[in-house]
Amino acid sequence: SQQGEEDPQALSIQEGENATMNCSYKTSINNLQWYRQNSGRGLVHLILIRSNEREKHSGRLRVTLDTSKKSSSLLITASRAADTASYFCATDEGGAQKLVFGQGTRLTINP
Amino acid sequence: GAVVSQHPSWVICKSGTSVKIECRSLDFQATTMFWYRQFPKQSLMLMATSNEGSKATYEQGVEKDKFLINHASLTLSTLTVTSAHPEDSSFYICSASSRVGFNEQFFGPGTRLTVL
User: Fold this and answer.
1) Residue pairs between chains A and B whose CB atoms are closer than 8 Å
2) B44·A40 Cβ contact <8 A
3) Rounded to an integer, what distance in angstroms lies between the CA atom of residue A68 and that of residue B41?
């Protein structure tokens, strides 16, 4: 499976600041999902955005999707130390049931 | 709901031995299960997709004779790493889906395999 691109690869910010991560993919999709992974743990599903949606919110999370640019962004507002984790986007461009993951962004929130 | 467990959570074995990892869906029936491998500081790479009662479909470059997958029931899939070598050391994560043709997946906590 091809992997999408995410940037930045690593991001370190102060607690309370906003964190923005970007994801790009290669082919057409039906939906895009964002996951969080704490070190050495499994994945936690954060949010799913469909191809006909441009923006979606969930708590402190805001996801945008631009299908013309084949890109998505994840914004975490008012970051907390507990947000420290790796964040991955995943698309269904691998086929009906397959997920293709981006390279991930390692986010560090400094207290 | 939608809880997936993996066992063991970590395992250390000697080179040449085989290791079995279990993936269970605890509160739903998983028509499809997926196995991923993740190397340190890297993303998840899909290894194979398995449907209950049928042979697994392996991704390009994944040796099916080395990574044996058995999806014997709607709640259990197993991955056996045969004749493990140090390069097989990795974090193995399974996921399960209850809806055919839809890519909502629920992930297990992962299994850390270290081959000495």
Assistant:
1) 60
2) no
3) 30
Query: Which amino acid is located at A36 in the chain?
Result: R
Specify whether the CB–CB gap between A14 and A110 falls below 8 A: yes
Q: Which of B103, B107, B112 to mutate to test the interface with A (most CBs of A within 10 A)?
A: B103
**Residues with Cβ < 8 Å from A33, sequence gap 6 or more?**
A45, A46, A47, A48, A49, A89, A90, A91, A99
Mutate to test the interface with A, among B38, B71, B105 (most CBs of A within 10 A): B105
CA-nearest of A24, A32, A56, A44 to A85 is: A44
Phi, psi of B3 (to 5 degrees): -105, 135
Q: Residue A42 is nearest to which of B43, B46, B110, comparing CB atoms?
A: B110
pLDDT digits (tens, 9 = 90+) for A42-99: 999 999 999 999 999 999 999 999 999 999 999 999 999 999 999 999 998 766 578 8
Q: How many CB atoms lie within 10 A of CB B112?
A: 15
